[in-house]
Amino acid sequence: MENKIFESKDKQVVPFLLTQHDIVFLGTHTVNSVVFFQFSPKKLCIGLVNRFVSYSAPLVQAKELLDAVETFRGRIFEAKKDGYVV
For tag attachment on the chain, is the N or C end more exposed, with fewer CB atoms within 10 Å? Predict the structure, then answer.
């Protein structure tokens, strides 16, 4: 069965996906001190990321994006505090 989870560690992609209402944030996991954020559905995530990198992504409210950046940073900070990231 194909993996239906999209993973990213990208500091721009992750906050963008966190703002998308059709995307479900599933959580994080750490591999070799790298925190990966998991989202679903994978196919929709890939489409949105492709639009994001080609400058054709849906517009996002500034406050919503800034909140998502803080969520991203907070998860990284927590992983460092818990010793998962060096």
Answer: N
SS3 content of the chain, % helix, strand, coil (to 5): 45, 20, 35
| CA separation, residue 83 to residues 3, 14, 36, 38 (Å) | 28, 21, 15, 20
Give, in order, the Cα–Cα distances in Å from 13 to each of 6, 48, 50, 62. 11, 9, 10, 15
Cα of first residue to Cα of last residue in the chain, in angstroms, is 34
pLDDT in tens, 39-65: 999 999 999 999 999 999 999 999 999
Q: Where are the domains of the chain?
A: 6-61+70-80
Are residues 65 and 13 in contact, defined by beta-carbon separation less than 8 angstroms?
Answer: no
pTM for the predicted model, two decimal places:
0.90
